[in-house]
Prior knowledge:
By secondary structure, the chain is α+β, with helices and mostly antiparallel strands. 44% of the residues lie in helices and 20% in strands. It has one domain. The model is unreliable at 1-10 and 375-391 (pLDDT under 50).
Amino acid sequence: MVSAVATNAIPAGHVGQVRSLLTLSPIRPERLRALRRRVAFVSLAPGGDRPLLDLATIHFARWSIVHALPHPDGNGRPWPLSWAYLLFAATYDGTQREYLDAFTDTLPQRIQKVFGACVGFQANVEAAPGADGRRFAAWAFRDYVERNMLPAVQFEAADPYSSVDAIRQAIAIARLDRRSDGLSGAELGRAQIQVEALALNPPTARPGVREAVLEPLARRAGRRPGIRPLTLAAPLTPSAQPSARRFRDALQALPDTHFARLTRIPRTMQDHLGQLHPDRLPVDYLLLTADHDGEPADYVEAIRRRAGDAADALFGACAAYPGASDARGFRDWVDRHRLRTDYYVSGHPPRTVAELDRLLGDRARIARWTLEGPLPPAARRTADAAGRRAE
């Protein structure tokens, strides 16, 4: 369940040390087909995620090519748009400047292949001065992203203080611990040293072939459960004036959610970006993006059963919302308002919210024991109990 850490003093796109951004960019019609091919290739190619994982700061990222929104009257039929749009959403560690500069330094070609299909990128980024031998200037890409961003209404995180490095450390410790079962003597001692080193320091290597290529292929082939994206776009009723507090309270009640972000799509549909004949919507839209455990249908049903009041508070301002008490109507409404994710990236091997809580707690206790020395059995039991309560 998402954390209740956020307060009004924290910016809507920032909680703990995790930040969030979402951009919506009109796609140049003559480059739409090439962009489709590019996104399909990287989403299916073995190891296509690996360059992004090398950034080591991305929790999750998604790209969607949006041609239509659900009908403004709430019936869920597609409402065709004059322009296709690239929707990009990401959660990451560090400042926005650090994150975008890392993109510019590490993946300039991929940025050009994807965002280069969008209105304004060529003129405002590729042609901007100050590239200094790079494909484009870092300041120009930062400015482009800021102009294309949709402001977040609210952002929530299951654990807003755990970095990607800490999560990868915790998972690596659990793997080493499993492999050490049955070891003894010097081999067990070496395994213990490795565990202690991982508890105190970030991983020394970026994701390797196993993590970036083989494991994703095995999950895909075996249809194993993992972390999935949910993106919902729903028209707001003209008189709707939902508050950030109401959204925050609803998001906190969503079960099995790693991150949840709430954004408002204005009816002007990014007309300030310079596209000819920009789209105009009859109403604003509510845009919810979430990274959740398990199958989408199970997650939606869990929301209805375990967080129905929160769902009603969140979606009650949307046109033709049936209410969580109508099981079939609720599921159908969510399905009709769901946007497809064309490319999705996870910055670490998938683990449930509950599993990550346990693994990160184990890592913290090992680090404490390593620094403070071993405790007597009775004191260790007391420290374990206190650590679990604190976590």
